[in-house]
Amino acid sequence: MLDCILNKDGTYLTLDDGKTKTRFHAIWLRDNAWDAATRSADNGQRLIALGDIPAETSVSAATLVGDTLRVTFAPEDKSVDYALSWLLENAYDRPANTQAGWTKPSVETWDNDLMSHLPVASFDAVSSDPAALQRWLGQIARYGFAKLTNGPIEELALMRVVKLFGYVRETNYGRHFEVRTEVNPTNLAYTGLGLQAHTDNPYRDPVPTVQVLYCLESSAAGGENMVVDGFRVAERLRAENEEWFNVLARYCANFEYAGSDDVILQSRRPMIELAPDGELIGVRFNNRSTAAITDVPFDEMATYYAAYRRMGEIIDDPAMEVSFRLEPGECFLVDNRRVLHARKGYSGAGKRWFQGCYADMDSLNSKLAVLETEHLAAAE
What we know:
Number of strands: 20
Number of domains: 2
Strand content: 25-35%
Order of helices and strands: EEEHEEEHEHHEHEEEEHHEEEEHEEEEH
Distance between the termini: 26 Å
Mean pLDDT: 93
């Protein structure tokens, strides 16, 4: 049986089910009220500022009625109902993650074992079936990448892929870019050389968080695509040498691109990026675009380079890679904050033509959340 207990001054309450005690501060509860005077019924945005809530807010009464907790606040003498499911879903009274580099339960890191169950969907299915689109976007959110097959073999078909979830992010390369062999290329991506696994555009701030690569022609030998989970790389580095993990997370690297007229792009970010509470939120690794590293103290530079070298060795380890060949009408998407991608070298015989573009994870996550909400509503 669930009990609700107030502390003596009402500054917080405790929900106790006999096994777990979960506390909520009065000011947090009041700030997260969903009554009509506090939140817009149309969009859920707050109608008041924190300064409109008395600083001395406390709970004067709390009553459990079925699956609802009714709370009365002083000094406003205002009563608000909370769904117990919402409270427990948003509870913050829980053990903190103590190790730097933790990831959310919704994130699944991987190595080449994922080859046996690649995240993949059919273009026709995701274009016509919201449930199929939800599953595919969910794979991208969980694994950081996914393939799409049986798409149209036509120029700019990748725009139809992005339209499934969001919007193209235009850069100095344009709304899209061509990937095929060129004479005197401005970027090594346009040659037949193999490329080390990397995240794209680390010299931008912020980086494009989604990259789409769409195959239109692929008769040249070689050129298989590879992806590597940067989060698993970081986890492996931390397990091998925590000091190396920490030094790459503590200090910024410099990234730069100046390969075409009127463009000099620069950023200063760590190769392993953590949130203030230690959550692993990003990896930036691109040997072609790393500029002189100048923010590491002299006494730690040797350690930094040892860590940088080892990170590259882990990335290059075949046990970390998932590889696949894209045929015309196929594409893949990567979360560019997390998943590194690469390409094996290909010969000059035959043709190889890809088109690429950038988008962002916020629109992808938004579309996924909408589809999940609609699915839950339909199931009720």
